[in-house]
Each structure stands twice: as structure tokens, then as C-alpha cells.
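hiii, so i know i said id send this last week but things got crazy w the move. better late than never?? heres the sequnce for the chain we talked about at the cafe, plus the structure i predicted for it. fair warning i was half asleep when i ran it
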Amino acid sequence: MSLGESLEAKGKAELKSRILRLLSVDARISMQDLANDLKTTKVNAYNLFNEVSNEYGMRFVPEISIDKLWKWEFIKRARLRTKRGILAEAVEELPLTGFGEYLVFIKFSGKKPDDAEIVKAMGTSYAAQFAARTRGEYDLVIYVVERSYEDAVRFTDMLSRNLGKYKMLAYTSRVWGSFGFFPLNNKLIEQFDIFDTYKNLLFGLNDGGRSTFTEIGKRYSQGPAQMLYAYDRLARTEILKRVTYFESRPGNSFSIVAIVKTQSENQFDESKDRWFASLVRNYDKNTNECIFMCDTPTPKGMVVVGSFANKSAADRFLSAMKSGLKGAQVGSMQILKVIVGSLGVRDFDMRYAPQYKHLERKKMVPALARKGVEAPVEDPNALDR
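okay and structure toks below
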């Protein structure tokens, strides 16, 4: 390869990396805006976009705030009642609105079930959004979304009963997602007790996040204006964080689950911000390796899921965690095989993480000029506008 060809290849790789970063925070970006950011033509931007999409098997999906769904569920129920009825039934209704996030960890003793047995044991439940075999402290980790802790425990109990011929220890932990996501399945979205137009929009985005609003509306006998309105309302109330993507053919192939257990709360809280700020600096120039982070109450700490090029890269990440997070014990498991759902692998721009605003207030990172909620384009792939 000549020097000119080498420079051209490097320039193309940088453009493709920039596309991944842009799509992570706005997967419905128009070709015009994409071209403007890349400082190229719309045709070239379109070709690069398709090349990147095919290379990584990109799936465009909504990123939904699980902890905020209760708002629209409660609004829908409230509109069907008088003011007196709302007050009289508020105590009963509030606990039934919304969903929570949970992690289920399972350790088998002796013989282990195969993948098909595990999937069958989950039955028809909508709860499990992700499940993977792991090597380490546990053999199986499951990301669950349920209405209550009791429901999550019942899911784990059902799974244990259905795998009754195997010896196993299982525990269910309430978690609060703080970064990243797992793609949600349509069975879960079906459970959202929100207005049909909003639910139909989420179905449409989950099946194809860059579909036109006309196409989405047509599937559900609704017009594009209804879909646009639903998008605007869900975005402004922050239930729809963004349309993003995940890689079905990720470039990284070595994934881990890191479990952080706090030993000194003061030390941990102080060092956690510095550790996250170091991630922001590192991933400003390098591919983001973090997939998902959540806080855990018992024991207090966090769980971090990451995807890396190889074991050496994962080891470096874990080493930095252990040295950066003071007053905490850091353990890890390797993800061997995903058997339900998908990892939300993407090259996310850390400046749009919830933690970044907190770091801004503490002047630990540069301030970011954020755009307000903008009207989404009807057809993100159009070249004629």
C-alpha cells in the first residue's frame, strides 16, 4: 500500500469512527446533518453510513428510560378517572405503575443446563431482556425488567423450579441503570400501559429506528403526524432518551461483567467521579468499551459491563478500575455466550452520559453546549433534502 493509499484508508477509518459516535446519540440524524459534520457530500456520507451499518450489523432501536415510564402510565390511568377517583385510588395505582431493573445471578453446582433448557425455563415471560453464560463467580447473568421486586423474584423462582433437576444458587438484585442500555424486546413494550400511539411508536422504532414516521404509522393504521407528536412528547418527558444503535456484529469480542462492592463508602463516592472522568478523557479519542453501568444497593456498589478487543484490553480496564475506585473490591466474570437478547455494544459519546452533567457542575470536565429537543426528520435516509 502506497503512502497516499495509507493516508486515504486512515482518513476513511476516522470518518467511519465519527459516524459511529454520532449515531450513538442520534441514530435518526439526517444525511444532510451527517454530511455537514463529516465535512463531505451527502452521497459520500450515505455510502459511508451504509458501509458502517453493514460492517457492524447495526440495529437502530430506542433507548428508553425504564425508571420514568410510570409518568405516562399514571397519566393514562388518571385521564380515565375523576379527580376524586384519582385521589381515592392513588395509593393503589402508584405502586402498579412503572418498571424497575434487576440483575439475576445464578451459580450451578455440578451439571449445568444447556442453552435451550435455560431459554425454555424462562417460559413466555417478558421479563428477561438479556441473559448470558459467564465464567467466574456465577455461571449465568440475566438482566430483568419487571414491575416490582416481588415480580422479579417470582421470575427467578419460576426459572429455578423449571430447572429443578439442577442444583443452583440464585439471587435477584434491584439495580438502577446509570449508563448504557440493553435492547428491550417487544414483549416488554407490549406491557407498557401507555397510550396506544406512544406504544405503537416504540414498537416501530424497535423494529427499525430509522424508519420513516409514515412507514411506522402505516403499520398501525395511524398517520405520520401522530407518530411525530408521540415522538416529541416521549422525548420531551425523557422517556425516550434517544434513538441509538447496537452492533449485532461487534468489532470487540471479549466481554466482561465487573462487580464492584463498596468497603469504604466515603472513599468510593469520592473516587467514583474521578474514575468516570478518566473514562471520558480516554474515550474522547478511543473507542468506548463500556456497555452498561448500574448502581447496586446490597452490597452498595455497581456493576459494569464492557466489551473489549481482547483479554489484555479487558485486563487493563479492570486494573484501572481497581486502582481508580478507592474503598471498593472489584471482581469480574467473562461473558462466554449470549443466549437471550443482545449486548448494547456501541461507541457512545460519553459527553451525553448522565454522569457528565454531574462532572460539569464539579468542573471536572469541559462544559458541553447541548441542543434542546429538536423535531425529528421524517426520513433520515433521504438524499433530496
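btw The mean pLDDT is 92. thought thatd interest u
miss u guys!!
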